[in-house]
Design goal:
By secondary structure, the chain is α+β, with helices and mostly antiparallel strands. Helices cover 54% and strands 12% of the residues. It has 3 domains: 1-65; 67-169, Beta-Lactamase (2-Layer Sandwich), CATH 3.30.450.20; 179-343, Rossmann fold (3-Layer(aba) Sandwich). The protein has a 5-stranded antiparallel beta sheet with strand order 2-1-5-4-3, sandwiched between helices. The protein has a two-stranded antiparallel sheet with strand order 6-7. The N and C termini lie far apart (162 Å).
């Protein structure tokens, strides 16, 4: 082979190598450009995700710090104090201290922060954690003298060990409910055991307000008291009937001009006793079965008196006595409270 031929072949090989290199460089450039586009898209997407996450976290933090209810996230602790079930406070909002009365609990466990509280708290949170079912409940925070209303739910994260709790202090509400309940019980006892009409009053009212749709109680009393000596009016008191039913029935019969048949009189007296009336109430009081819940059993309740003495407080008694003194004469007040056998016959009793 001549020298010229060899040179020619070398030149062809060099040109082929240069062409292949140029094509490879072009492919690499295109690949780099494609990778760069993908990278820019991923960076943009990541920035959008991070921005959305920051916005979400800011909304959560604003809500976390501004709500009036207490809020906390707790995490189950394995082998806590003495190996007992326990939960650690991971974060709490500012209202936590206001609603619970306790601050600086983050990183403490429930048993450390509230050592005097019962096991039940941890058991409830553990139930929420195991079942995934939220629970709304009320519990007394014994160590701080408070009653809390709580709503606990599981935090659905990768740990599966956290519970979030929203709560508020309802101590004053519960006290108000107890006062209302006590007041209702007190009034019911009075209403069930008084021989006269029942009424209500307080310091803001100038007059007594009757429970029943009738004129005012003392207005009625003053009206017939002023006519107590009239020949067509006879004053009969429940206490007197209880003390001497036979005598009071004879007194009523005499006033009405009814001749007494002594042969059947004992049966009439027995039939007029409270026990007999209650026993035969459905027969003698058919309308009571329709007009009262419980019928005659409710209307004819116990037939006793003076049980209000253990119900009213000293202040309430003083309020009552002051009102009675303003509304009635001393003689009327004595008769209303005691009856004829103790206070004297109204017909002949002066004011």
């Amino acid at each position: 082979m001549t020298e010229t031929t060899q040179f020619h072949k070398k030149m062809l090989a060099i040109n082929e190598a240069l062409m292949l290199g140029s094509m490879r460089q072009h492919e690499l450039t295109e690949a780099a450009e494609s990778l760069n586009v993908q990278l820019q898209e991923e960076i943009t997407e990541r920035k959008l995700v991070e921005a959305a996450l920051r916005e979400s976290e800011e909304r959560y933090r604003t809500l976390f710090n501004s709500i009036d209810e207490g809020f906390c996230v707790i995490e189950k602790v394995e082998g806590g104090v003495g190996g007992a079930l326990d939960f650690r406070y991971l974060e709490v909002n500012p209202a936590f201290a206001t609603q619970s009365g306790m601050s600086d609990v983050v990183e403490k466990t429930i048993r450390q922060a509230f050592p005097d509280e019962p096991e039940e708290w941890c058991l409830i949170y553990d139930t929420v954690l195991r079942t995934g079912e939220p629970i709304r409940f009320e519990r007394g925070l014994v160590s701080h003298g408070r009653v809390l209303e709580l709503y606990a739910f599981r935090v659905e994260d990768k740990t599966h060990r956290r519970v979030a709790v929203i709560f508020k202090d309802i101590t004053e509400r519960k006290r108000t409910e107890e006062r209302i309940h006590d007041s209702e019980e007190k009034f019911r006892t009075l209403a069930d055991n008084m021989s006269q009409f029942a009424w209500m009053t307080d310091e803001t009212h100038d007059r007594w307000r009757d429970i029943f749709p009738a004129p005012f109680y003392f207005d009625i009393a003053r009206t017939w008291w002023a006519e107590r000596a009239s020949p067509n009016l006879l004053c009969v008191h429940f206490n007197d009937l209880k003390a001497d039913l036979d005598g009071e029935m004879r007194r009523i019969a005499g006033f009405l001009g009814i001749e007494i048949n002594e042969a059947i009189w004992p049966k009439l007296v027995e039939a007029a006793t409270f026990a007999s009336m209650k026993r035969h109430g459905a027969k003698w009081m058919p309308n009571a079965e329709r007009g009262f819940v419980g019928g005659h059993e409710t209307f004819l309740h116990k037939g006793t008196n003076d049980r209000w003495r253990d119900v009213l407080s000293a202040d309430e008694l003083a309020l009552y006595e002051a009102r009675v003194a303003r509304e009635t004469s001393p003689a009327l007040a004595r008769w209303l409270e005691s009856g004829r056998l103790i206070a004297g016959d109204p017909e002949t009793t002066p004011d």
